[in-house]
Amino acid sequence: PAGHGQNLVTEDxxxxxxxxxxxSCRVKNSDDSVIQLLNPNRQTIYFxxxxxxxxxxFQLVNFSNSELRVSLTNVSISDEGRYxxxxxxxxxxxxxxxxxxLVPPRNLVIDIEKETAVEGxxxxxxxxxxxxxxxxxxxxxxxxxxxxxxxxxxRWSDMYTVTSQLLLKVGREDxxxxxxxxxxxxxxKDLQTQRYLEVMYKPQVxxxxxxxxxxxxxxxxxxxxxxxxxxxxxxxDMRWLRVDDEMPQHVVVSGSNLLISNLNKxxxxxxxxxxxxxxxxxHADYMLFVYxxxxxxxxPTTTTTTTTTIPTTITDTTATTEPxxxxxxxxxxxxxxxxxxxxxxxxxxxxxxxxxLCLLIILGRYFARHKGTYFTHEAKGADDAADADTAIIxxxxxxxxxxxxxxxxx
Length: 410
What we know:
Layout: E1 2-3, E2 8-9, E3 13-16, E4 21-27, E5 35-38, E6 44-47, E7 58-63, E8 67-72, E9 81-87, E10 93-102, E11 107-112, E12 117-118, E13 122-132, E14 137-142, E15 145-147, E16 150-156, E17 159-169, E18 178-184, E19 192-196, E20 199-211, E21 223-232, E22 237-242, E23 252-254, E24 257-260, E25 269-276, E26 281-288, H1 302-319, H2 321-328, H3 333-379, H4 388-396, H5 402-409
Parallel strand pairs: 3-10, 12-20
Antiparallel strand pairs: 1-10, 2-4, 4-8, 5-6, 5-9, 7-8, 9-10, 11-13, 13-17, 14-15, 14-18, 16-17, 18-19, 20-21, 21-24, 22-25, 23-24, 25-26
Helix pairs in contact: 1-3, 3-4
């Protein structure tokens, strides 16, 4: 508010073009003085409740000794300016109110450099907000992410045209994503326009193993591979080849599938699926290594299990004597039973081995003793005997079987 009226009150008015502005002149302490409203050209709009101005867009909303309220419909920019409230006192009092007219952008347009871009390219987008008042602020978004553009403002009479430029490097992930131009202006809310990006990109290729689904590729078994490719435009040319070698004769290629019904070691190598479109060519590789066919292993016997287990048990016990002392207190029942079984088996084997060693020692001593007896008997009494016969008799102690011995040695 401005002016010299101490007894008058009014407020500034901001209105969007085409809408209604309401101007109010109020008196704090009424003394029945005359109130009137004047336009920026100081023409009287209302004198008390009478309208001398021929503009029918002005209508009386309220009139009393303390207020004169007037509405102005279909506001245009030409209506902008200072309006005066006057109170006919002595001396007269006056105050003014400022009417500001906002103009939203007439049009919001995105102009894109290329309707269809190729991934990796940098494209230019321009968004223009025409004929606004005040000048528009333009914001850019790609999806939910805000981007930064560069704006230029042009003034035409009382209007402003704003153009914002955005440079955007596009990738395949941008295909189908909206680029949004949003207006930030006091006269309008949620005014925006958008363009969907169309990005061409070369194929993305993937090779998957259908069979065997899991496990090794073994000799004699089948192998089935599938090649999938996605691109824009969708690739139509897809082919299989063997890297650095010719494709085996028995390989069957059916569209995107590759089948080897009976694998052998000569099939080892790298198999490549290539796909191409208007943008370019891509490939994916599958390295094949054919393993030996599975061999049938007989089920292990009790003896084999025992023999294998015993050294393990002995080794473990020897190596971890100290930790075992602490671990035993926390060992479960199952562990205790296993330890007992292993100890029993080990004890039995040790006893058998010990018995066999003892038997060998006894037999050895037995044969050694008999051989020694022969030599001892032969020599016993030889020193005192005059001849061999006497020596034999002396050695045997004159027993009756000396004759037999005599005959044996002759």
